Amino acid sequence: MPSPYRALFAAPGSKGFSVAGFLGRIPLSMMGIGVVTMTSQLTGRYGLAGALSATIALSAAVAGPQVSRLVDQYGQRRVLRPATLVSLAAAALLLCAAHYRWPDWVLFAACVGIGCVPSVGAMIRARWAALYRGTPQLHTAYSFESVVDEVCFIFGPIISIGLSTAWFPEAGPLIAACFLAVGVFWLTAQRATEPAPHPRERRGGGTAMRSRGLQVLVATFVATGAIFGAVDVVTVAFADEEGHKAAASVVLAVYAAGSCVAGMVYGLLHFAGAPERRWLLGVCAMAVSMIPLLLVGNLPSLAVALFVAGLSIAPTMITTMSLIEEHVPRAQLTEGMTWVSTGLAAGVALGSSVAGWVIDAAGARAGYGVPAVAGAVAVAVGFLGFRRLKRPAPGRGGSVEQHSERKERHVA
């Protein structure tokens, strides 16, 4: 029996845009940590390093949805290339400013420009949606993309830190910029699989965030992002307290590996129930999986607990992408996907900040209370907004099977 993943790539052009998307996406996990490593090595100022990384994240959270909104209107090629050139120019400015010890405000200005980087993951998912909309293959495609995301977050930081420490301080951000340039320009050269643009109709303007269902998804993923941000920071501090700080990267890789495994398996399955129920179940599973972290006493047990916690991440993300198709107009699909990523990024920044404060005040073990609380908030938001997710707007995306099922439930 042929693998559903192999069958995905029977579509002409799918292999090309997948590889280009991987190259263009891996800088997302390389640039922030690369800037931290570079700045701390060159200046010894960890406070400045963290502030620069946060500036990139916040700038991307603001600019990302706007870039994706323009992509929906004018197409990927016309928007991604100029946006990427802005980001690359800003990255070059940052490297020069760091190397030659220019004033701090130049560093921050450059980081704001780097935030114009496009959400390549959303662009790739939009191409899959254009190929397989309304078919079971789209579920498999979203599963595959979640696995690619996890692979990027497993290896990206390792590559970036390794280059900056073994070669020269600017190497990590420099190679990340090179990956971005190659990935985006290769992707936008593939015109055959590019989704058709949807010029904004006079009667249907406005942002995708007007969708009440998307508002629930984004709000929930702010809390979910806080889980991820807090877990990263607290795990580093916990490993440091245990006397094995370098092991933190391995433990966090195990966390991502759990999500990777779950995503691969989830993509092989096909479900008949309503997707919003699976989504809420996934959010609850993520929240519950944070509780054992409060009880771990050493790094091996932490690794096991994080692997189990990771099993709920990819399935929840995959179902989220399916729900976005139901609650966002097709003409705003890329923007809708980017808004969820923006909520996630904002939550990561919030969670890491709060976790750092708790660690300073009470130690690493107490820090695991932050992701536990964030998980509880995610569940509360999910339950409060659940009714909105059960009522997709007319004319929105979603599979034929989902629409038929909803119609039957409504008649019943």
Give an account of the 3D structure.
By secondary structure, this protein is mostly helical. It has two domains: 183 residues, Growth Hormone, Chain: A; 205 residues, Growth Hormone, Chain: A, CATH 1.20.1250.20. 77% of the residues lie in helices and 0% in strands. The chain has 19 helices and no strands. Helix 3 packs antiparallel against helix 9 and helix 10 runs antiparallel to helix 17. The two termini are 37 Å apart. The relative contact order is 0.14. The C terminus is likely disordered.
Features:
412 residues, mainly alpha, Growth Hormone, Chain: A, 2 domains, 19 helices, 77% helix, globular, disordered C terminus
Count of separate structural domains: 2
Outline the low-pLDDT stretches.
397-412
Secondary-structure arrangement, i.e. CATH architecture of the largest domain: Up-down Bundle
Percent of residues in helices comes to over 70%
Q: What is the average of the pLDDT values? A: 82
User: What form results from the Cα inertia axes?
Assistant: globular
Strand content: under 5%
SS-based class: mainly alpha
- Can you identify the CATH class of the largest domain? Mainly Alpha
Order of helices and strands: HHHHHHHHHHHHHHHHHHH
CATH topology label of the largest domain: Growth Hormone, Chain: A
Distance between the termini: 37 Å
**For the CA atoms, what is the radius of gyration?**
21 Å
Q: How is the main sheet built?
A: none
